[in-house]
Amino acid sequence: MKIRDIVNRDIVTLTNCEHEPIHIPGQIQPHGFLLGITQDWKIDFCTENIASYFDVTHNQVLGKDFSAVFGLVAEQEIVAYIKGDEVQDAFPLEIELLGRLFQINVHISGGIYVLEAELLFADQEKLADAYKQTIQFVSQMNKTKSLKDLCALVAQGTREITGYDRVMIYRFDEQYNGEVFAEDCREDLEPFLGLHYPHTDIPAQARELYIKNQLRLIVDINYVPVPIFTVDDKEGKNLDLSLSILRSTSPIHVEYLKNIGVGATLTISLIHHGKLWGLIACHHYSEKNISPEIRLAAKLQGQFITSQIDIRQSNDEYINAQKTIVALEQLTSIDLPVVKESLQRIIETPQLLEISNASGVAILSKNKIFKTGITPADDEILSLIEKIINKTKSEIFYTNKISDHFPEFAENANLAGIIYHSIGINGHVLWFRPETVSEINWGGDPEKSIIKDRNGLHPRNSFNIWKQIVKNQSSPWKQYEINAASQYAHTLQNQLILIMLSEEEEKYRNQSEILKETNSELENINWISTHDLQEPLRKIQLITSKMLGELDAISTESISNSLQRVSKSANRMSGLLEDILKYTRIKNTRDTLHEVDLNKILKSTIKEMHESIKESNATIEYENLPEVHAIGFLMRQLFINILQNSLKYASAERQPKIKITASQEPVLIHDRYKVYCHWVCFSDNGIGFEPQYAESIFKVFTRLHPQEEYTGSGIGLALCKKIMQAVGGDIKAEGKPNEGTDIIIYFPCDPEDTLTTL
């Protein structure tokens, strides 16, 4: 019978080091021996060091029945322990083999029963002691709230139970770079807490083994590996030791541990949702082994962490999540008018930033950008939206490192992290976070984790702190922040839909009002053409007929008087026709509105009316007027008509005085279905009017006083009304008989206005 060892002697290179077959080393650590037993209980694998425990060699036992070497009683005990194909891994089997007491762990590998035997601990800790320590730990664990506090407690508890010099809770990030998240160590040791280590320190195949085998032990870092031998009856015959406790470790990993001065290690896997979340890494600076009871207690410490990760992470985020929820509730409960100006109110609400803990936010609606906080320039926002739409084809997009997706924005420190949502046709909302420059302390240069020299590959031997500056990324978005943004984006979309419906409703309402007013105007124009225009025509006809009938007897003076009366009637008719022409020419011109400085309009109007004002001995006082969204020449015509009206209806009992006041800042003024942002008030001390005429005085050709007493066509204030309707504003009048009149004009909101009050 031919016998050979199964030691893996493949050379590890830079090309294959990440695929080093560490699960089939063909060797074990020497603090125990290993047997591989077939299903019919023949010894198919045996380690060379069996001779250190019994008076037999591996050559003598390979190929023989297990009972022939160790006796039938031992075989029956192991069979009973295995219970068919089920392997009990919680407690090893205590058994006597050839007169010596051992603890045996058993697992199945490729149909082979793998028996790993260690001598029974002479000063074996009692299970009751480990149980007592565990109960004490659970009691303390319930007093912790955060995950970090729990991990710190586990590090302390594990060190107390195991006696290792240093215990670290090692947490992985998404790329499997590690961070020492919690630590407890001897006072004379340099702490590693907060240090980061590159993913290459624990390569992929090692991480896979940590998932399969959740407890790994190195008793003496200076051990000499013991080879495994087998009956050479099959080509490529090997033994997978993924679940082995005694498995020999990768030479590169052993050298790594030697470089940091470690003498023995215990590693416990922290598995969360099927993935390797982290490790409990125990270091001792001399040789050290621990009993099965202590190994189990330490393993339970790891399970305490993994069972609490979701709860503790949720608890850690609970306070911030609650703030987000409160901000979202406050934001969605604001009673907003269904007008486009409400977007400006929304953008100025601090809760809009708070729901996602963002530094800036922008809302784009109908090519108009509303933004607050730290945001990119408008052209960058438009470009970013276009690129997101073209690349993702999705209504939602978020990242904390925009340069990974759109490198052209890498230089903009205000545009490192974004949450983007589409909110309907031509609507978008974006939350921004600026670049967060962070400093990471690595336990050695991560770029030099593997070194190659003429003797082969080696792990780095320098573990001096190496600082890395991380740029071009913001702090990561939490899931509750992303969810809150999504919820409010939906609310915002509903608001935009309501605004659109309201605008359409207002459009149809305005068209209906215009049609109604047009019909009324036609009736009034028809009335004036049959009444006011016919009256001077009748006078002209009567005077000229009388003159023609008295040509022979009429004097020159009488002719002159008659012609003056004809001229006066003709002038009145001409004035009426001119006013009608002005009135009918005013159209709805809101599409041509622009910024108008009312101060310039007022000064030019007063200058033009200088003679009339002087003749009336009137004084005009005015304060600073706002810039409004209107049409310049119509505002001039408006001011002339209002001032002329005040001069015309001045009181004979006192000197005419006109005072002009105005809103100094934009302010939302609600009036039924409309919203205005500025007002200007013309107050005079004239004859005033009764309150019941506040609406009718703006109707075309309406006069409250007889033509003989106060001249005019009755079109002046009607013309003012139509001008304000044309620019999307409104005009109102308030009067008190014999005290005076207030004419108040309201201007529409400029999209650029900053609204400060609702």
From TrEMBL:
Q: Report the EC number(s), separated by commas if there are several.
A: 2.7.13.3
Task: Output the Gene Ontology terms for molecular function.
Answer: phosphorelay sensor kinase activity; photoreceptor activity
Domain called Histidine kinase: residue spans = 528-751
The Phytochrome chromophore attachment site domain extends over 146-303
Q: Which UniProt keywords apply?
A: Chromophore, Kinase, Phosphoprotein, Photoreceptor protein, Receptor, Sensory transduction, Transferase
Q: Does the keyword ATP-binding apply?
A: no
Q: Which reaction equation describes what this protein catalyses? A: ATP + protein L-histidine = ADP + protein N-phospho-L-histidine
**Enzyme's top EC category:** transferase
Q: Which domain of life is it from?
A: Bacteria
Question: What Pfam families is this protein classified in?
Answer: GAF, HATPase_c, PAS_2, PHY
What InterPro entries has UniProt attached to this entry?
A: GAF, GAF-like_dom_sf, HATPase_C_sf, HATPase_dom, His_kinase_dom, HisK_dim/P_dom, HisK_dim/P_sf, PAS-like_dom_sf
Enumerate the SUPFAM superfamilies for this protein: ATPase domain of HSP90 chaperone/DNA topoisomerase II/histidine kinase, GAF domain-like, Homodimeric domain of signal transducing histidine kinase, PYP-like sensor domain (PAS domain)
Give me any GO biological process, just one.
Answer: regulation of DNA-templated transcription
The family this protein is said to belong to = In the N-terminal section; belongs to the phytochrome family.
Q: Quote the protein name from its UniProt record.
A: histidine kinase
Organism equals Flavobacterium phragmitis
